[in-house]
Amino acid sequence: MHLFDKDILLEPRGPFSYSGHITENWSINGIPNGGYLMAILAKAMLQHSEMKSTPIITANFLNRCEPGDARILIEKMSTSRQFDRIQASLYQNGKEKIRSFGTFANENNACIVERYEVQGPRVPSLEGCVSVPEVPNYTFFSQMDVRLDPACAGWMSGKLSDTSESKGWIKFKDDRPFDLLSILLIADSFPPAVISSQGMVAWVPTLEFSANVRNIPTTDWLKCIFRTRFITCGLLEEDGEIWDQTDQLIAVSRQIAQYRPYTK
Questions:
Q1: Whole-angstrom distance, CA of residue 167 vs CA of residue 190
Q2: Are 179 and 229 spatial neighbours (Cβ–Cβ below 8 Å)?
Q3: What fold does the segment set 3-105 form as a domain?
Q4: Strand ranges (DSSP E) for 114-203?
Q5: How confident is the model at residue 108 (pLDDT cuts 50, 70, 90)?
Q6: Average pLDDT for 102-129
Q7: Which residues have CB under 8 Å from 154's CB, separation 6+?
Q8: What residues does each domain of the chain span?
């Protein structure tokens, strides 16, 4: 079993309740990665949906999670011929930390229109990109091979970009195949786009995160791009696209986060 699968294991504790353990293996500066937490919640929701296609998962991060035991409670909100809508809440130490909503579609829905008005991002070859290094307290990058386009990796050496954009390639270092749950992880996998233009920042915690999985990839690597266009009143948005190596769209995402620059 791959490490990611071990780290999202759930134990049923009742008809609509699960226990799990948030590990330290997917952390950013010691804090569990939001995409990893969303994967845990989505796994619980999937146990209660017969529809598995093109899910939309939205999470509101109410309080900071930490490595340790967690409890997930499920509520079935509505069911129709086309959609199952499910709510999941994650608790630690008796306190609700995340409330998530999932919309799961019927796989038999007809795909009448397949239209892309943009193409997948142009990214240099794997050899031409810059690997995000493994550093203490950032265990996420010990598990994921993330390679950034040099055009948005200048922040590592103090050379900032004019635009807040982060793009490049990604895969699991243990070569785990991609599936629905791993796409949620990958949607929150790259350094914040704002770093490209502003350099290292003090604070970019996610408030709300939504990901819509459109397809399940079959390629070895995925190509991602994340953009921030507006920073106002201590908030920013980050819009993401995930593509496979054949330029098939895999997922789109948006997250709203707080922003606090370093002050001297």
A1: 8
A2: no
A3: Porin (2.40.160)
A4: 130-131, 144-148, 164-172, 201-203
A5: low
A6: 87
A7: 160, 161, 196
A8: 3-105, 130-261
Q: Which residue has the higher pLDDT, 107 or 264?
A: 107
* E strands in 80-133: 83-92, 95-105, 130-131
CATH number of 130-261: 2.40.160.210
β-strand partners of 130: 148
Amino acid at site 131? S
Give me the half-sphere count of Cα atoms (radius 13 Å) on the Cβ side of residue 32. Answer: 26
Q: Is 44 exposed, middle or buried (0-12, 13-18, 19+ CB in 10 A)?
A: buried
pLDDT digits (tens, 9 = 90+) for 213-222: 999 999 999 9
The candidate with the shortest Cα–Cα distance to 41, out of 215, 213, 242, 181, is 181
Per-residue pLDDT, averaged over 141-169, amounts to 94
Stretch 170-190: mean pLDDT: 97
pLDDT at 264: 58
Q: Mean pLDDT, the chain, as a whole number?
A: 94
Contact, 187 vs 37, CB < 8 A? Answer: no
Tokens coding 256: 């709203």
Average confidence (pLDDT) over 96-104 = 97
Return the closest-CA partner of residue 236 out of 264, 184, 185, 197. 197
pLDDT for 201 equals 81
Assess whether the region 3-105 and the region 130-261 belong to the same CATH fold.
yes
Please say if the pLDDT value at position 203 is more than 80: no
258: number of Cβ within 10 Å: 14
